[in-house]
Amino acid sequence: MTKKDVLLNIRGLKIEGKSGDDWLAIVNGVNLTLHRGEVLGLIGESGAGKSTIGLAAMGFARDGCRISDGVIEFDGTDLREASQDQLRRLRGKRIAYVAQSAAASFNPAHKLMDQYCEAPVRHGVMSRSQAEKDAVELYRKMQLPDPEGIGFRFPHQVSGGQLQRAMTAMAMSCRPDLIIFDEPTTALDVTTQIEVLAAIRDIVEQFGTAAIYITHDLAVVAQMADRIKILLKGDEVEEADTETMLSAPKDDYTKSLWAVRSFQRAEQAAPRDKPVVSLRNISAAYGPVKVLDDISFDIHPRRTVAVVGESGSGKSTAARVITGLLPPTRGEVLFDGEALPPDYRKRTRDQLRHAQMIYQMADTALNPKLTLRRLIGRPAQMYLGLRGRALTERIRELLDLIELEPDQYIDRLPSELSGGQKQRIGIARALAAEPRFIICDEVTSALDQIVAEGILRLLDKLQSEFNLAYMFITHDLATVRAIADDVVVMQKGRVVEQGPKPEMFAPPHEPYTELLLSSVPEMDPDWLTKLLEQRSRKGLPQSADQ
Amino acid sequence: MAHIWRMIAQRLGFGLLTLFVVSIIIFGATELLPGDFAQAVLGQAATPEAVANIRRELGLDQPVYVRYFDWLFGVMQGDFGTSLAQRGRPVSEMIMSRLGNTFFLAIYAAAMAVPLALTLGVLVALWRNSLFDRVANSTALSAISFPEFFVAYILIFVLAQSGYFPSMARMPAGADLGEKLYRAFLPALTLTLVVTAHMMRMTRAAIINLLASPYIEMARLKGMRPSRVIIRHALPNAIAPIANVVAINLAYLITGVVVVEVVFVYPGLGQLMVDSVSRRDIPVVQAIALIFAAAYVLLNLTADVISTLSNPRLMHRT
To answer: What's the predicted TM-score (pTM) here?
Structure first.
């Protein structure tokens, strides 16, 4: 490629963020070159500065951030030197942005069409009626259902996957030279993710748009990008074309990213004991809305049952029924063969003690005003009656178990911990009650892969040490592969299929399980292409909602 | 739309219940006042016989619940009774002219204050932390920090002493609209100064609260002008809190303006109510209290309807 083809050229980019009264470096001198029509994948864990760099490519810094040094040259214009007016004329027209959560990034007060037409009309690219026609065309290209009508709906009337495609169409409205995709599929279910990925890839190819594709998911970026750049804490680690990066990563950090998915827990013997927890023909509803329909499964000591399904499939509701937060409309929950009272208020303290819970968002599940001593100490005190020195000893022991140095951590507040450490506190709090059964509700989905793996290993170790039974709610099949003994697949409040993991991962599958399994992105850069071909050959649906 | 009508009907039902409770509270409160109409009207000449005579004549010797239910049944048939102080004059007739005046002043003040507050609120949100923001904020804050009568006297000092506007707002009979607006200008301006700050600051806060939302960032990244980001993207989502604070202030303009009425000698409901309390003219007090309560109920209902209408998630449920 010649020099003329360079669209975006970033040199020595430094970005700082305000923390109290100080400016701390978020990005320390990153270089980036993007040619016309090229897709660059930016990969890194949270805090790597990938979104910040993406926004900087539009000459934009969020409140509390500033671009402190470097050159950002877009098609010959230095964006750092450009006036606000010049930047405004570029944004939306020549550089567009697709945000992580389409549901939050569409204005709830306006219809999709009004939001689509805003950029082309305001930037003087087309008239309103032209823009509307164009929108329908792009909606059709993005394979949205009812392309003529969907624009006249409000964002809340459209599903998440559809919104994400509508947002990509909106970014395309002025046929920009560059689009920044900021984790566009992270918030979606696997089966929905596929169609969005396919649609994005098609349209970017069709219009020859250059793109920066930001994500933390390697398998996803392998499908989308021509080149991949790896970031770690605001520093560039390495960059190479996709093939090379996947087959021969150079840097140790990159290799560790690649190796993450290798954790596989030891195979467990078939259950001999009777189950700790059994669900018997449970149906449940929120008011008139039925969410669980006649589900039954068992959870044995020392075994992990993974409950898989898309959002809205009833996984978390099942957990609420077991813990007694939502009394079922029909059926019963057995603990050691005995029926538990449906409402947690009617359960004995011991019944409550034996079923503990770990939550997805450790951030919101820990009271930010309490020190770890009190967070972990509370259940030990309440359920086991520990006091004084015995209590302190127990808290230290628990901190040891979750691999946090007691002296250093015992009097800290949750805000002084990292995401992974917070999740460890969630685990310690559950263990403090000395339960026999723990529900893990998407405990790793908010964490980076390396951190998540550490959590999975810890949970595994604790399970063999204390004979725990786990119910592991997740939508991530990689996690299921890593830790499950038994798998329960749920869809729309029903159990579609269940059984021991080896059987579940081997064909033949129920059609829905098949769809779910085949939708998990793989590292192979041709995976998406092959999958789509295969599905169209078999005449299988592209996704669950079409 | 059906659920809006259902909501309105339901809320009107609760409103009636509120009015009923208010009527009991007011009746009870007036019972607690020392003395009654008979003593108040006779003053120094109150011999026990004279007092007893008047009480018997007006039915004040009846037990409190009998008097209350008599009054309540009257009201339910649309009869607010007759004034005690102005023998035999129907309460509704006494209130009617005052009610018109009160509404005139409230609407006059609202017509100035609401657009002013909303415009200023949007502008200070747009130019937040600028000099304009700070000046507008501190001016508005000082205006509400002074007692109303003080603001009123300052305005009289500045605008009436110099002869631009009359300081007495009593209307001559048969005044046309222009004349009325001219005469009521100072009280309306006083009220405007008093209520603007609250609405302006709430508008500013409601808008700024939304500026961190992803859809605002999206609008900026689409290259929209700052004014469009605020007016088109933030404001429609801030209507609910703004409508509520406007409703509270409008209710205040109807019910809380007695001090301003006194300063400008403006014949409104507030003055009539205060006079009636001191004369122990209970039927008049009751009727005015009900009007005030109804104003609160209706304005809050209006605010809720506007909030619902402004929210597509409530309007277009799928």
So the answer is: 0.80
